[in-house]
Design a protein that fits this description.
alpha/beta, five-stranded mixed beta sheet, two-stranded antiparallel ribbon, about 20% strand, disordered C terminus
Amino acid sequence: MSQRRAPDRAAVGFTVKSGWASAVLLVGSITVPRVLDSRRIELSDPAVPQSRQPYHAGFGTARKPGPDLTRLVASVKQFGRQSVTGLIRHYQMLGPPLRGAGVVVGSLIDPERIANDHIRIHAVEGQLFRGVVKDAAGRSRLPCSIWRDRDLYGIAVTTLKRPEPELRSSLVALGRGVEGGWRAEQKAAALAAWVVLAGRPARRGRGRP
């Protein structure tokens, strides 16, 4: 009697930057995933250039609280939420049900703990953009986990039970033939999606802010 083939899974990974993110959709089995889609997604409205860095008034200068800042942050939340939920909805129609979302960010530090003004501005913006992705996932009823880029390989080694060199080689192979380039951002998003494929789904809304 032949063994029943394990059902395909699907997961999406995001690498969040200021104003945009790389999104990668993985489908297939844990041992042999494949990239079904890879793209750049805008988290800020291209028609509002200042919304890419809403807390910046200039290089190293914080935008003062007031109507302009409020408008820019509201623009990011509205545009980014629609952008991410639209992509998730599209992915939900492409293949197997999405198991969850993995989000990769540069830092998770509380901006209030940062003394340097310029670094704190970047931290606040990072908090804003990852929050937009997490909120959109929650509104789409999609479990979401957030990891720092520097922690991701350690988490993947434990979850996928593969050594890091093998994971890096596998990620290179995953990107062969993918349109639009396969740089560090896409690899990180793919690895986050792979971890979600292999791991137990997070509860809805779970994940660090």
